[in-house]
Amino acid sequence: MHTSLLLEMSAGAQPDRVAIGPVASGVTYERLHAYSAAAATLIGSGGGRRVVFVGLNGEAFPVALFASGLAGCPFVPLNYRLADTDLTKLLVRSAPSFAIVDDDMMQRLDTVDGVTVMPRSEFEAAYRACEGSLPDAEEEDVAILLFTSGTTGDPKTAVLRHRHLTNYVISTVEFAGADEAEAALVSVPPYHIAGISAVMTGIYGGRRIVYLPAFTAREWVDLARRERITHAMVVPTMLGQILDVIEDDATGLPDLRAISYGGGRMPQPVIERAVAMLPHVDFVNAYGLTETSSTIAVLGPDDHRAALTSDDPAVRRRLASVGRPLPSLEIEVRGPDGHRLPAGVSGEVYVRGEQVAGEYLHRTAIQSDGWFPTNDAGWLDDDGFLFVEGRLDDVIVRGGENISPGEIEDVLRTHPAVQDVAVLGLPDEKWGECVACAVVPHQGGIDQAELAAFVSSRLRSTKTPSVWEFRAALPYNETGKLLRRVLKAELSAQAG
Asked: At what angle do helices 236-249 and 217-226 cross, to 10 degrees?
């Protein structure tokens, strides 16, 4: 199945329903389909083999996404938050291409051989003014090329084919299942897999998509109220700020029905506060990767409620899990030898299913039997709930012992004086690595010795941090991921 069919089906079933934008003046499904066809013709005349998108969220993004598929070209959204030189490097790697660039970002890009650049305003005017044809396309064609974060070197290019994305959509969303009042607020950036999947699931399900180009909590809340938003996806750092705004003005979000969150570890006090302040809202923790076409496991609304109200410690701790795998997927946890591990034992998370690509340009990471090693450390409980501990690369090796940063972070987050925390390994002459901890305290300060005793009373002494750093904030990217390597570099420089 080709991704363009998702839009074609929705345009045929509900042509006059608003697909993108404000309820009073947004783009209907029929119009979005026509715009995408016209843009596909425009792209075809541009001569590029790929379609690059450099810009903020908005109408032009879904048009370019579907148009690239119709034109038979991979869609390549780039991270506009990169430094200009790094952004240009990715543009070079994307050539030959047709690049759609926000007008105010044009000056940031150098001229690149093989890249035809069109300002966003011209692109929008062009697809609104012309008509286009719909060429045949194959589901094996590459739909999306997404550059990874590149924190350990040059970014890898993840490859997602049309069949991977459509398998994810049709296995998780009911076609045209949304009622006409439903509207999803999308504030994740377009160069992230969550931004891609939000378009495709929203279009297929028939839910109106409302974009917030750049996140601030005040603007998010105002837009949610103005457009009567029913569904939203946020990252953990966003949710706390949104709750602050709601608490300050005491107006609430009466139309909101569901919030999904992911992209980083959610502090338990934040989700507990959210459920208490928004009791009418269903909360879903969604865990996924670029290479798996988005979500592979979810902690659903009933799971949240059960964990929050249970007296059973095993059930209660599931609030820190990412839930259970989607019905269409299999998940296993394996040891270094590749063998499956029993419940409760930590190892590497593996996943298998039709939506899993596990492919990069010029190589594949998926095994011959379809299993994809995620490079995430984690474990499963007796009922199949998955607990993700972080990247395997972040495991601390102290005197030959593997120590999970996530385990220590989870303990520290239960301390009432801790607002946020990150644990990592620093070079140590005696042990190879030592355990270091960066803490953001609540107001009123915090005692280092008390925290050390708190950890050692719950974990082995070898897992108690020996280096402590107290900060006003920790570094996160815009999708809620802790920039652990940035923090590690800063702490290493201070220690050195």
From this structure: 70
User: What residue segments make up the domains of the chain, in order of their start?
Assistant: 3-214, 284-393, 395-495
Instruction: Say which residue, 425 or 138, is predicted with more confidence.
Output: 425
187-196, 399-408, 429-438, 443-452, range with greatest mean pLDDT = 187-196
User: What CATH architecture does domain 3-214 belong to?
Assistant: 3-Layer(aba) Sandwich (3.40)
Residues forming beta bridges with residue 348, ordered by sequence position? 334, 377
Helix (H) or strand (E) holding 246: helix 236-249
Distance separating alpha carbons of residues 302 and 328, to the nearest angstrom: 20
Residue 293: what are its φ and ψ, rounded to 5°?
A: 65, 25
Distance CA 159, CA 147 (A): 9
For 252, list phi and psi in degrees, rounded to 5: 80, -175
Sign of CA dihedral 302, 350, 391, 448: positive
Mean pLDDT of 134-151: 76
Output the pLDDT for position 135: 58
Classify domain 284-393 by CATH number: 2.30.38.10
How far is residue 474's CA from residue 438's CA, in Å, rounded to a whole number? 8
Q: How far is CA 93 from CA 100, 112, 364, in A?
A: 16, 10, 19
- The span from the CA of 164 to the CA of 48, in Å, is 24
For the whole model, what pTM was predicted? Answer: 0.88
Type of residue at 395: V
* Calpha distance 164→296 (Å, rounded): 12
**Matching fold, domains 284-393 and 395-495:** no
In a 13 Å sphere around the CA of 218, the CA atoms on its Cβ side amount to: 2
Give yes or no for residue 229 having a pLDDT over 80: yes
Q: In the CATH hierarchy, which fold is given to the domain comprising 395-495?
A: GMP Synthetase; Chain A, domain 3 (3.30.300)
Ordered DSSP codes for 319-331? GGS--EE-TT-EE
Q: What is the DSSP letter of 358?
A: -
Residue 16, token pair as written in the block: 């006059």
Q: What is the pLDDT of residues 296-321, one digit of tens each?
A: 999 999 999 999 999 999 999 999 99
Helix H or strand E segment including 282: strand 282-289
CB proximity list for 36: less than 8 A, separation 6 or greater:
4, 7, 62, 63, 66, 67, 70, 127, 132
Residue 93 sits at the vertex; the CA angle it makes with 88 and 98, to the nearest 5 degrees, is 80
Q: Are 69 and 87 in contact (CB under 8 A)?
A: no
CA terminus-to-terminus distance, the chain: 55
